[in-house]
Design goal:
about 15% strand; 5-stranded antiparallel beta sheet
Length: about 260
């Protein structure tokens, strides 16, 4: 029994080889055309695969480049955004600073407006106490002062210039002795031209060709005049001295200080 099984095992490989040879002999061999067609298909397939690999690689490189470009653009936009935010912060700070300055300037402007309005009121009161010749010289500046400071379009700077101009002229007149020709009402009730000697803005003396003389003093409603024929000689002497016709000398004239 054992011997028969051993023989069967020995014959098994030979049988397998024989069967394989028979199968090979039975399978039809491909023709040369079929082999060539198969080779062409294989080559074509390899070419398609190579082309697809190449296109895929190129597409990958393009996408990678585009992705890098997008990243750079994002970085640039983020930098610009940061700069814009910083600029906005600086602009807001500058705006707040300018607003503070504007508020300060408005406050100072309001103070200056109130100050010049007060000065104009004082100048109006002063104007009534000035001699007529000086009033005439100041009239162009006086007329520039606004009648209603609340609605005027004249700038504060121009209003200050007008006030300072009038005060400068007034101060100058108060420091000088001036001679003017005026028409005054004399003691007899007649009016005649006289020469008037203004001593600053505090006193004035006049004398006419007929010897009529008098004294003038400022008041709240203008200058008041009173006749004083007794001082005619002294007034004439003082007028000659001012005109350079006589040497300077002491001339006694009545003075009334208020």
């Amino acid at each position: 029994m054992t011997r028969s099984f051993t023989v069967a095992l020995a014959l098994a490989p030979s049988l397998a080889v024989a069967l394989a040879r028979a199968a090979v002999q039975e399978a039809p061999k491909p023709t040369l055309a079929e082999a060539r067609l198969t080779m062409e298909k294989w080559i074509e397939t390899e070419q398609v695969l190579a082309k697809e690999r190449k296109e895929w690689q190129q597409g990958k490189e393009i996408l990678t480049g585009r992705l890098e470009l997008v990243r750079q653009e994002i970085a640039a936009l983020e930098e610009k955004l940061a700069q814009a935010q910083a600029g906005v912060a600086q602009a807001n700070a500058k705006r707040d600073e300018l607003k503070a300055q504007d508020d300060q300037l408005k406050a100072v402007g309001a103070q200056l407006t109130a100050a010049v309005t007060g000065f104009e009121g004082e100048v109006r009161r002063l104007m009534r106490t000035l001699p007529e010749p000086l009033q005439k010289r100041l009239l162009p500046l006086f007329q520039r002062m606004p009648e209603d400071p609340a609605t005027t379009k004249v700038s504060v700077a121009e209003r200050f210039q007008n006030v300072l101009g009038m005060l400068n002229e007034t101060t100058k007149a108060n420091q000088e002795m001036a001679v003017e020709y005026e028409v005054r009402e004399l003691a007899a009730g007649t009016r005649a031209e006289v020469r008037v000697l203004y001593v600053g803005l505090a006193q004035a003396y006049y004398v006419g060709s007929n010897g009529e003389a008098g004294i003038g003093r400022p008041s709240g409603d203008g200058w008041s005049w009173e006749a004083s024929k007794a001082i005619a000689g002294e007034v004439l002497t003082a007028l000659d001295i001012v005109a350079g016709k006589q040497t300077p000398a002491f001339v006694p004239l009545p003075v009334k200080i208020r």
